[in-house]
Design brief:
By secondary structure, the chain is mostly helical. About 70% of the residues lie in helices and about 0% in strands.
Length: about 280
């Protein structure tokens, strides 16, 4: 069952419970001629199935009213408890799935994503317009990542690879095809539509590249088609990389440190830490 369905059921039960509590209290005060405190106390202990017996209806109308409260209120009260527990368990399960998904995304960038992004960045003739916006470091906060995402949305995402670059990309992606297929088969990806879209676009690009033995004499329209497929992947890849870096920054500082030192947008990026031990993170 989806979270929305559980929340809706919980809302319905809470609404019925609240209405029963209010109307039952008012009715019990009127029929049994008891105080607000006693009426409210009786309704609550009845719906909670506690039933201390210290307060009980003495009139026929009060007894019929108590039966109605038991039939309607007790079931609704139990439904609220059950729905609340189900929502808590759902959130725990979803959190575990999302954590697993972030691990999958991390494996993707370690095995293929970072190098692929570095290739695209090197073929982007207008990357200088956004390069400084993506120099992630340890001082970044949520607003810095939001500003970088806004820069990405404004970027034109053009690519101008030559024939050798297309051959390099083809060789690299064909070597990663089996790895990408295994990632796409993971059921956790159902919780992350944007990353699934990236993998689907990437596998389509692999298929397109694999069908061509050479790129030297292909028609201009065919080259433009391949570049459009590459740009689609490039656009998705940048967004996922930013999200992944923000996740590492918040939860895994040691992984973030290495990822920041391998930043594909940083022309001076180097994995080694200097003699002074200082890094940008």
């Amino acid at each position: 069952m989806s979270r929305e369905a559980i929340q809706f059921r919980l809302l319905v039960n809470v609404t019925i419970l609240g209405a029963t509590l209010f109307l039952g209290t008012v009715a019990f005060m009127s029929v049994e001629k008891v105080s607000l405190t006693d009426a409210l106390y009786f309704i609550i202990v009845t719906m909670a199935t506690v039933g201390y017996g210290d307060i009980h209806p003495v009139t026929a109308g009060g007894k019929f009213l108590a039966v109605g409260v038991i039939v309607l209120g007790v079931g609704t009260f139990v439904g609220v408890i059950a729905s609340g527990m189900e929502l808590i368990l759902f959130r725990r399960e979803r959190k575990a799935v999302l954590e697993k998904l972030k691990l999958i995304v991390g494996v993707f960038f370690s095995e293929a994503g970072t190098r692929l992004l570095r290739l695209f960045v090197s073929w982007d003739p207008e990357v200088s317009e956004i390069r400084t916006s993506f120099l992630v470091n340890g001082r970044w906060k949520r607003e810095n990542f939001a500003a970088a995402a806004a820069s990405a949305r404004r970027h034109a995402f053009r690519l101008d690879p030559g024939t050798p670059e297309l051959m390099e990309l083809r060789s690299f992606l064909i070597g990663k095809r089996a790895f990408l297929v295994r990632l796409l088969e993971n059921p956790a990806l159902l919780e992350h539509g944007s990353f699934s879209n990236l993998l689907q676009a990437l596998l389509h690009l692999v298929e397109e590249l694999a069908e061509r033995d050479s790129f030297r004499d292909i028609p201009r329209a065919d080259r433009a088609h391949l570049v459009a497929d590459m740009v689609r992947v490039y656009r998705h890849l940048v967004g996922e990389w930013l999200s992944y870096m923000e996740h590492l920054k918040a939860h895994f500082p040691y992984l973030f440190s290495l990822a920041a030192r391998k930043n594909p947008f940083d022309e001076d990026a180097r994995v080694e830490i200097g003699e002074d031990g200082e890094t940008d993170d």
